[in-house]
Amino acid sequence: MKKIILLFGLCIVSLGIFIYIFRPEASLPTNPSNTVEHDANQTNQTTLNDDQESYIPETNDHDSQIQAKKPKKLSEEAIQYYRTASKYGWESIVRDFENGTILKNKMPKGEKEKLCEIALSQSTADQTKRLFKANCKPLNGRSSSMIINGALTNAEGKIDQNEIIEKLKLYKSENVLQTHVTYKFGPYEEKSSLQSKAIGWGLEEVSDYLLSIGVDYTGVDGNLILDNIKGRNPSVSLVQKLLNAGIEPNSSVYKQMEQNDFSTKHPNVYNLLKAHKP
Q: Does residue 161 come out as left (phi exceeding 0), alpha (psi in the -120 to 50 range) or beta?
């Protein structure tokens, strides 16, 4: 059963990597506010070559204003690197950054930068240190948010929160930690933060660490309680902390609980929030 779960997890991560390759870019901030803006319209104003494949991403109500972007085909070298990482892990890619193989590779510069970016998100804290020394460092504010994901797991198969915290500490020590991101989608914009990302993943230890360095529950759009119960790991203790901080559940929270049968699947969360229903 553990092997099946592990294989399923690897498939999820691999799919996530493929989807992420075609996500819009977010540039580094030019001010000290630790906020980065991304204009989706600029991303889509790219001249397309005849040999580019058609790709229409799934959209939600928030990004439906964005035109579908046709990504460039990946080079064979890049495809091979991603296949290797998906099958064997990122250690060989980290080594190829260290020994200069990727730098000398004929892959386009953009593919090398994307490979670096994804390697940083999937690597352990020790591997990330090595990537930094090999001059593979974050090129945009999105990289910090990418640290918080489900790729790194411990011996029990759970997300390794300690490893994520060590990576956050490394980014902070290198002065490249971006705590807040503002995404722009046409006339719309959405504010997110490392805190909302941690809460969405149900990572209480990561959330507590972020609080300890001053990344609180403010500066984000949407309801953080909703973020948690819509995530993969609804947490009664995290929800309680949010309630204690004065964050109230909205109507979408109760709608989400009813749709996903929280009374049966997550009774502790359900009963706690039911007691706070207006």
A: alpha
* Strand, coil or helix: 159: strand
Which residues span the domain enclosing 251? 179-277
Distances (CA, A) of 50 to 57, 66, 73, 126: 19, 22, 11, 42
Q: Is the Cβ–Cβ distance between 139 and 176 less than 8 Å?
A: no
Instruction: Identify whether 26 is part of a domain.
Output: no
Closest among 236, 166, 165, 158 to 206, alpha carbons compared? 165
Q: Is the dihedral of CA 102, 108, 109, 112 positive or negative?
A: negative
pLDDT tens string, the chain, 278 residues long: the values are 444 444 445 455 455 554 444 444 333 333 333 444 443 333 333 222 333 332 222 323 333 333 334 456 899 999 999 999 999 999 999 999 999 999 999 999 999 999 999 999 999 999 999 999 999 999 877 889 999 999 999 999 999 999 999 999 999 999 999 999 887 878 888 888 999 999 999 999 999 999 999 999 998 988 999 999 999 999 999 999 999 999 999 999 999 999 999 999 999 999 999 999 88
Amino acid at 250: N
User: Domain total for the chain?
Assistant: 1
pTM over 0.90: no
Q: Name the one residue in this structure whose structure tokens are 């990537």.
A: 131
Does residue 69 fall inside a structural domain? no
Domain contains 2: no
